[in-house]
Design brief:
The structure is a homodimer of 397-residue chains. Helices cover 43% and strands 14% of the residues of chain A. Chain A is α/β, with parallel strands linked by helices. Chain A folds into two domains: 140 residues, Aspartate Aminotransferase, domain 1 (Alpha-Beta Complex), CATH 3.90.1150; 215 residues, Aspartate Aminotransferase, domain 2, CATH 3.40.640. In chain A, helix 3 packs across helix 11, helix 5 crosses helix 10 and helix 12 runs parallel beside helix 14. The model of chain A has no long low-confidence stretch (mean pLDDT 95). At the A-B interface, helix 1, helix 3, helix 5, helix 6 and helix 8 of A face helix 1, helix 3, helix 5, helix 6 and helix 8 of B. Chains A, B: One of its GO terms (biological process) is alpha-amino acid metabolic process. Chains A, B: Pfam families: Aminotran_1_2 (PF00155).
Chain lengths: 397, 397
């Protein structure tokens, strides 16, 4: 039987699909993949930090010892020993987390999608930081909420702004540690105020924490989750502390919500790879992260220092930027009249790239901002690239 | 900072989440996991067919030779060499499929979710077979369509029923080969008629084909995809021919639709595991499936024969069942007055289980039906279990 000669379908997408557009970042990344481009645009962790040999040994061990179970369908909420391990690692003296509160996801991006699926109706109010993580805005926008932007300063979200704007909100989405895109951290004083404000107003608080372990000095600040496990939904990820390509994350939520999320995940993709979960458990179960994470911190901290120093040397007065205490990003604010998208066009012509700030705003973009990532570029190239960007900014001052 | 004493959130789910319920099958599976139960309820492939050593060698090779790339973020549409391989394997003399038509997914279940996300509005009409695959009904129901059930007989879907009921439908979801749950195959004569009917009416046809390669004799029937690549969306999976626990499937669709699906996938989980895709490519690239699939066919065919023979011997007159030409399932129809859910309760008390037919119907369930799977139970246990069920049926005649 052969191909028939039929009229092609005229595709009509759902209303929600009309909201979708390709990430501005992914479009830029395509341009910046040319090897001659010095790219500060990526959000990728450095492959230098990937424990390839450990991962290889773990996959091998799991498949050798337990291959049939690792390759069979598994439970929707995930591999129990891994969930137990995560629960233990998130528990504090006065806040015990149990495995029943945890569901494994295909990256924490999936957690965002499932949360919106289960909690957001068309027109539901979602509070977001200003600016916010682009991937979250994308995930949520499919469900057609109303985004309300909450004020932020160098100490992170301003809790009074949540109180002023949050009435009736379905969710508040926050990235309290070394935020993507700004690199900012929510101060310890504000954490309690934010948690209390959201609880008082009945607003579930999403604590997205992919970078939280990557503090350059000291220890991570207390988690919002541990301050109010009944009102905070925590998203964790192995992408930045192990490797991202395996797509493994998790969410922690009150049990009635987890059960509903589990139903949603079952309908969405049944479960996350059994093999991947077992291999990651094998890698981390004996404390590997305690030795591995400090090496990532040292590496990223040194890279960040190189970039900050180069910026101080090359960026003219009138330009300001954040000084992150961890994570992967620096946020730059130009004088109002300079449009970072136009600057990017010139930069690309000069073989250097960054991400303009506009797409990170849910409302009223500040077009004089941009994001720099320093983790995948060598110190020499950081200096060269920042010098080029500095010259282009000066020419526009 | 310690846990605060705050009022817990009163969770209110989205309207779409209220549609969600746990799969009836998953609930039954929990009961049937007791080792003394002979379970024909599962939909799991037999782990005897998993090429564990091959998978182990492939993961090892990929991580040894290309570890950093395998563990890094990857493109949303998938690993290009694997997409090229799939495109080649689906191409026929007069229907060339190109990699740009293919997107890798986290199991074909994710394909169902993404298709509904991108094509279905509340109230959109979706045509489904009678009965249909429960996982598809679940995936679609989240988006609150109107299901319209299309007639089916032993030759599969009746195309005239599509013509009669399909006006204005957004989708027709079909499982033409060894359907789950009935084991039925759409006859070769009807394939062309169905494809033409859908094209004439402008209805996109989803061809879900997880079992298509598992024909017990001869070669698979022509794919609907190859008869009309402009109007058919094809869902493929490695779950039944390799292993399910890795969660790897793919969808083939016209390029404008694939681009929109790619945006939806990006917002949903960024991409499917790079490592898994590279390892599966390593397993299959030199023709392994051509030697492996026949061994699964022989194994399942022999298991099916054992069950059919036992049924002939033990089931009383008035009970009918399908005789599958491939796949994993037999569908049983009891006299009208016997409710298969009640029969199941008695069966479980006798340590044998199956899945009652009700949940597989989008509308007007025929409660005198049930599904049997024969692939994970030994021939001795098949005989023992069927004999028990036969006795229970006779007692109710």
């Amino acid at each position: 039987m052969s191909k028939l000669n039929l009229t092609p379908i005229n595709w009509k997408f759902s209303e929600r699909a009309e909201q979708l557009q390709s990430s501005a970042i992914r479009e830029i990344l395509k341009v910046t993949m040319r090897p001659e481009v010095i790219s500060f645009a990526g959000g990728l962790p450095s492959p230098e930090t990937f424990p390839v040999d450990r991962m290889r040994a773990a996959f091998d061990k799991v498949l050798a010892e337990n291959g049939k179970a690792a390759l069979q369908y598994g439970p929707t909420d995930g591999y129990t020993p891994l969930r137990q391990f995560i629960a233990d690692s998130l528990s504090t003296a006065d806040c015990k987390i149990v495995p029943e509160q945890i569901m494994m996801t295909s990256g924490s991006q999936q957690g965002l999608d499932l949360l919106a699926k289960v909690l957001v109706d068309e027109g539901s109010k979602i509070l977001v930081e200003t600016p916010s993580y682009l991937g979250a805005l994308q995930a949520f926008s499919v469900y057609r909420p109303e985004f309300v932007s909450v004020e932020m300063d160098n100490d992170g979200v301003v809790p009074a702004s949540v109180a002023a704007k949050g009435e009736g909100a379905k969710l508040f989405y926050a990235l309290p540690n070394f935020q993507n895109p700004t690199g900012r951290t929510l101060s310890i004083e504000r954490r309690q105020e934010l948690v209390e404000t959201c609880a008082r107003m009945g607003i579930p608080l999403i604590e997205d924490n992919p970078y939280g372990d990557l503090c350059y000095s000291g220890e991570p600040l207390p988690k919002l989750l541990n301050m109010n496990p009944d009102g905070v939904i925590y998203l964790g990820s192995f992408s930045k502390i192990l490797t991202p390509g395996i797509r493994l994350g998790y969410m922690v939520a009150p049990i009635p919500l987890i059960r509903k999320l589990e139903q949603a995940k079952q309908a969405t993709d049944l479960h996350t790879s059994t093999l991947t979960q077992m291999a990651v458990y094998e890698v981390i179960k004996d404390g590997f992260l305690q030795e591995h994470i400090p090496s990532i911190r040292r590496f990223y901290s040194a890279q960040c220092d190189v970039m900050l120093e180069a910026m101080t040397k090359n960026f003219p007065e009138g330009v300001t930027w954040t000084r992150p205490l961890g994570g992967m990003f620096i946020w730059v604010t130009l004088p109002k009249h300079i449009h970072s998208k136009e600057l990017l066009d010139e930069a690309i012509a000069n073989n250097v790239a960054f991400v303009p700030g506009g797409p990170f705003y849910a409302n009223e973009a500040e077009t004089n901002t941009f994001r720099l990532s320093f983790v995948t570029v060598s110190p020499e190239k950081i200096n060269e690239g920042i010098e080029k960007i500095g010259k282009l900014i000066k020419a526009r001052m």
